């Protein structure tokens, strides 16, 4: 009887191990397929542009256009690699006390392009507590959210940022509202899905990275959006007295 139980247990362990291995391979295969697709598109464009440059008698104006295409697609590949690295590595915030109002105001000012037609309205609760967070990671959060807003508004519109103190839990709430294109229900539901994008030059990793960074700080992110009426991103962050455990990388999450 004991021998039979031992054999059954070994068989169960073997089956579980096989299921885990298949799940790991499925995750890696899916990720590899998506990355291959995202890399092949700009590579194909670059290859076609190079072929055009090699042709005899190419007009100087056309050569300049082809070189600009190569530069743009190379930058796109570079963004993809950077976003992949940001998404794949574990998120471990190096916290320090930050006055969020001053930090957000300074960061957003640096993100606005010269001559932009976007007007920024910043409202900051005077009772804001100091928040323990990682300034570098939080700058990455703002880069992605504000960058998305500027693109959705086509560099013309209003960007409203409200920062309020919260009591339950004690911390802050940041609302970033734009007057851009907005998202329908289907797009909004997939907005945080890795590699999902509606923009030709997007990597689809921006909000996925934001979600992981906010989560690593013990916070939450919600999206409210209506087509033609803009998007509001709400971030809730705790005061952060206690450090949160590092957010696992995509590989760790897959059990690899």
Question: What does this protein structure show overall?
Answer:
It is a single chain. With 256 residues, the protein is α+β, with helices and mostly antiparallel strands. The protein has two domains: 1-88, Helix Hairpins; 96-238, Heat Shock Protein 90. 52% of the residues lie in helices and 19% in strands. The chain contains seven helices and seven strands, in the order ααβαββαββααββα. The strands form two sheets. A five-stranded mixed β-sheet has the order 2-4-5-7-6, covered by helices on one side. Strands 1-3 form a two-stranded antiparallel ribbon. A hairpin with a 5-residue loop joins strand 6 (220-225) and strand 7 (231-238). The radius of gyration is 23 Å and the shape is flat. The two termini are 36 Å apart. The model is unreliable at 242-246 and 249-256 (pLDDT under 50).
List the helices and strands and how they pair.
Elements: H1 2-54, H2 60-88, E1 96-98, H3 100-111, E2 117-124, E3 131-133, H4 135-152, E4 156-167, E5 170-178, H5 185-190, H6 206-216, E6 220-225, E7 231-238, H7 250-253
Parallel strand pairs: 2-4
Antiparallel strand pairs: 1-3, 4-5, 5-7, 6-7
Helix pairs in contact: 1-2, 3-4, 4-6
Question: Can you give keywords for this protein?
Answer:
single chain; 256 residues; alpha+beta; Helix Hairpins; Heat Shock Protein 90; 2 domains; 5-stranded mixed β-sheet; two-stranded antiparallel ribbon; 7 strands
